[in-house]
Amino acid sequence: CGLTQAVVLGPQFLFALTRTELEAFHGAKVDDLIGPGLRLLLVGINPGLWTAAVNAHFARPGNRFWPALQLAGITPHRIDASRGLLPADRDLLIGLGIGITNLVPFATARADELTDAQLRTSVSTLTAVVRNTRPKVVAVLGLTAYRQAFADRKAGPGRQQGELVGAELWV
Prior knowledge:
The chain is 30% helix and 22% strand. The longest helix is centred in the C-terminal third of the chain and has 18 residues, at 116-133.
């Protein structure tokens, strides 16, 4: 029906995609943001359609990820990835030793579209990424997805008892 998803900040219209345009990104992959000197690897569940459309993690307008990073003092300013990540923000994150990847690399409209098998399989890929990049800390951003992927139904938020290839593991 051509419904439009629009990003509006104040009175200024910034960017719009129709529902059909967004759905065209179902199954698309989003590039990992990983550079040298990685200290903190943030692991999303899987990209959403908006994220895939602009090839930038946590890009959906209204996503709390970027404001949370700024409020926690991890980034010096709020990053707006809704139209794609600006080169200066990409460089900032890499310079801070922050990387972003996903458990499952392909985009869906909702995380509940993923199967237990897809989440469980993702652990081996994540383990390889951690082995190759050697971050000090890995933070999985999604308790339910973590429980499914790592087959740990009793896991709680916070630091986990085990490590992931030598990295502290947080949920």
